Amino acid sequence: MAMRLSVIICTKNRRDSLLAAIASLGECRFRKPWEIIVVDNGSSDDTSDAARRALSKLPIPSRVIYEEKRGNGHGRNAAVAIAAGEIAFFTDDDCLVDVNALEALDREFEDQQLGFVAGRIDLFNPLDYLCCYFYRSTPLYFRKPWFLQPGFVQGSNMAFRLHPIRGGVGLFDPIFGAGARFAGEDLELAMRFLLSGWNGKYSPEVRVRHNHGRSAEDYRKLEHFYDEGVGAYIEKTLSSAKCGVATRASIALFMMRLAIRSKPTFQRVSAGRTSYLEAIAQQ
């Protein structure tokens, strides 16, 4: 039987949280062939060795690879290059995957029109700042010319068909992602799937618990990075030849609403659009 799922986790200097994530995968129920790939994206501690020891105790094919190029985009692309599964499920090293998540994900991808699935993200610790989660209890469907707004697809719980990534849709853009210039490699790739004619879905049955450990102050320090990433994502989407009139109108409406709702956020997003154009011009 062909390998169905490749579960991919990128990590850097998060040994203890990564081991908890691996342990949660060991509890998952899934009857089809699957594998685990851990990408060490520049750790200076014993993260890789600890991951290998933990994975060796599981009855699941697994690998730990090292990617020296900084950023989640590079790390995820390194895993995509060697993944054997039909579907790549990405989660973070501070997430605990629900025991039924993989089976739920497999059911969703029975729909051959789905290119990606985003899942529910619960907070693990109720004392953590209320961020980096998505609690919606009912499904959402995404189709072109939908403009995929921030929050619907997050790197801590998302899955993509691999053959479009290796084909016409393309790999993660390494200018995006944690450790790179802009946040948002997850959202940007999902939008490219939509522009290429694939559908997407949010499924509340595919669940993880996010143990991010951030305080309000921690999140405030990340706001500029996240918001400028949204601006860069918007600008890249607009630059695509596949971005039609309806999608452009949807983006304009999003920006208009953002300007009304929060001027500081609007300004950060707008700065990100400018910074993206400058970064591309320098390449």
UniProtKB/TrEMBL annotation:
Which parts of the sequence belong to the Glycosyltransferase 2-like domain?
Answer: 6-131
Q: State which residue ranges cross the membrane.
A: none
Protein name, entry field: Glycosyltransferase family 2 protein
Instruction: Indicate the segments annotated as coiled coil, or none if absent.
Output: none
| Matching InterPro entries | Glyco_trans_2-like, Glycosyltransf_2, Nucleotide-diphossugar_trans
Q: Which top-rank group of organisms is this from? A: Bacteria
